[in-house]
């Protein structure tokens, strides 16, 4: 018995589990899930095989069920193991340079620069805005606002179109050890730079980049932006957490990330591809560097409001993934984590093809009572989907509370995202793959 009959809470501590052990444990859990899925789906494979042959049936079911189930089980189990390392630096004061590539951003650049000026970062923030051949008053507006806010702002002009040209033009003028990239339509939370620099300075020497968290700022526009809010808030952020756990974040996105200047220069800067941030990051990994993710470093970006612009953006992302796979093969990566995580992108090809050419037609014929691919049993996936999203939501809500932010109620967007988002993403991604295969003209906007 304890003295004075008082109950004293004892802090429960868990033994440290090395990252590689977590990696194999989570693969084991995912494999068990797939074996269970195969057992449940044997009748489905057999029935569908009578119509499209057994090999065709296995291809479809693998793309629709086995691989997505494996990846989802690996994601959830990994996130349950995830513990962010403690910061070793609380109040960083090293100078940083912020690169903003801008093309016709006259309307929004003032808001972006105001958020830069509002940062609670103790060190010097130098801003280099690269006007990428704008035809409006982007540069003049930025200059006026920069003087008004007292920013350390330089404005350069890059005539050659393309974000990689603009960023490399700015990189040549950087004099600080750390360089940030920020999209011209992206607003940083007041603590964004502080948290992302803290993570970099608290990381091992071979960490050359830290990706920030990018969320949606214009989610109230329409149904499409409401769905994208949940994509960024749950799916994209959670995948980055998974990759960050294994210290191999696959995209230090140009929208908001921090880099070691000399490593970017040594790698050759941003390459002349449509997915310049993807290829650059994979080149970091191939060179033996690690890339981290900082969930508390948050910025809010403007997402497409029309299907056309959304399709262009996401097909560009899909095409960039293929560029990355062609530039650095997964088996050429030195780390087992990088081999696996980049290799996952190969499976995305199969998933998108299966959803586009099997699941969507299957949904259509199911309305006529033909349940070859989609049937009443397909509804059983919804409880699992909602459970996984709930676990992801709880963590993201904790992040928001730490930053004194509030998660906006967007139930309609969540339902639409859960039920219909894949119907948009997969065909658009397949179109992006086809664009790269056919070497079609690259379009950034």
From TrEMBL:
Say if the entry is tagged with keyword Lipoprotein. no
Q: Which residues cross the membrane?
A: 21-45, 57-81, 336-358, 364-393, 414-434
Under the heading CDD domains, the entry gives: CESA_like (cd06423)
Q: What is its EC number?
A: 2.4.-.-
The record's listing under InterPro entries reads: Nucleotide-diphossugar_trans
Which family is annotated?
Belongs to the glycosyltransferase 2 family.
Q: What is this protein called?
A: Glycosyltransferase
Keyword annotations = Glycosyltransferase, Membrane, Transferase, Transmembrane, Transmembrane helix
- Native species: Paenibacillus enshidis
Origin, by domain of life? Bacteria
GO molecular function terms noted in the UniProt entry: glycosyltransferase activity
């Amino acid at each position: 018995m304890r003295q004075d009959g008082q109950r004293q809470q004892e802090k429960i501590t868990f033994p440290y589990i090395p990252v590689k052990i977590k990696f194999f444990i989570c693969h084991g859990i995912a494999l068990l899930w797939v074996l269970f899925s195969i057992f449940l789906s044997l009748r489905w494979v057999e029935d569908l095989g009578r119509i499209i042959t057994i090999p065709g049936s296995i291809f479809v079911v693998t793309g629709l069920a086995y691989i997505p189930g494996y990846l989802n089980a690996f994601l959830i189990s990994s996130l349950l193991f995830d513990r962010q390392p403690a910061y070793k630096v609380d109040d960083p004061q090293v100078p940083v340079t912020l690169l903003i590539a801008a093309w016709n951003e006259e309307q929004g650049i003032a808001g972006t620069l105001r958020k830069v000026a509002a940062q609670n970062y103790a060190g010097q923030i130098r801003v280099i805005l690269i006007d990428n051949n704008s035809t409006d008053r982007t540069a003049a507006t930025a200059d006026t606002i920069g003087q008004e806010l007292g920013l350390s702002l330089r404005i350069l002009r890059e005539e050659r179109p393309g974000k990689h040209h603009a960023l490399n033009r700015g990189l040549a003028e950087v004099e600080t050890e750390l360089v940030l990239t920020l999209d011209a339509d992206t607003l940083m939370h007041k603590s964004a730079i502080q948290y992302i620099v803290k993570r970099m300075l608290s990381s091992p020497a071979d960490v050359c980049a830290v990706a920030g968290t990018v969320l949606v700022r214009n989610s109230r526009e329409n149904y499409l932006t409401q769905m994208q809010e949940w994509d960024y808030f749950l799916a994209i952020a959670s995948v980055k957490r998974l990759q960050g756990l294994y210290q191999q974040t696959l995209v230090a996105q140009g929208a908001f990330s921090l880099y070691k200047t000399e490593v970017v220069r040594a790698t050759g800067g941003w390459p002349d591809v449509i997915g310049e941030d993807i290829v650059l990051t994979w080149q970091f990994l191939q060179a033996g560097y690690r890339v981290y993710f900082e969930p508390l470093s948050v910025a809010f970006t403007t997402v497409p409001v029309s299907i056309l612009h959304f399709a262009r953006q996401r097909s560009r992302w899909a095409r960039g993934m293929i560029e990355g796979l062609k530039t650095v093969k997964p088996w050429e990566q030195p780390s087992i984590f990088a081999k696996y995580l980049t290799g996952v992108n190969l499976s995305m090809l199969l998933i998108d093809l299966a959803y586009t050419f099997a699941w969507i037609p299957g949904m259509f014929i199911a309305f006529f009572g033909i349940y070859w691919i989609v049937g009443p049993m397909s509804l059983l996936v919804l409880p699992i989907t909602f459970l996984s999203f709930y676990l992801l939501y709880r963590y993201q809500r904790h992040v928001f509370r730490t930053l004194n932010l509030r998660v906006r109620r967007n139930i309609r967007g969540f339902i639409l995202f859960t039920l219909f988002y894949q119907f948009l993403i997969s065909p658009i991604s397949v179109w992006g793959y086809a664009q790269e295969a056919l070497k079609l003209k690259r379009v950034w906007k």
